[in-house]
Amino acid sequence: GDKSLVERLHEAPQKITSFLSDTSKQYLAHALGLVISFWPAANLALIDDGLVEGCSDDKFAEYVEVKPVADKIMCSLEQPSDGEA
């Protein structure tokens, strides 16, 4: 309330960046939760350092060709659950 419009606008980029970062983390956590729900023995700690040594850029590009699956996950996240409708 005490800040001027210029001050609030000056803070806007940082707030937007923070919002996008938080939202990305939430979606990633959801996607990893889905992985664990189907494969409970998965050791996700192995991926916290990035790609496995020896994985080429071409091979990684093949792995990320999952846009149709990602689209379905995003659609399910955007649907209100029974308790939210």
Rounded to an integer in angstroms, the radius of gyration calculated over CA atoms is 18 Å
**How many beta-strand elements?**
0
**Low-confidence region ranges:** none
Largest sheet: none
Distance between the termini: 33 Å
Helical content band: 55-70%
The whole-number mean of residue pLDDT values reads 86
Number of helices: 3
Structural class: mainly alpha
Shape: extended
Strand content: under 5%
Order of helices and strands: HHH
Describe the structure.
This protein has 85 residues and is mainly α. It is 62% helix and 0% strand. The protein is built from three helices and no strands. The protein has helices at 5-38, 57-63, 67-78. The model has no long low-confidence stretch (mean pLDDT 86).
Topology diagram in text:
Blueprint: H1 5-38, H2 57-63, H3 67-78
Quick structural summary:
The protein is mainly α. Helix content is 62%, strand content 0%.
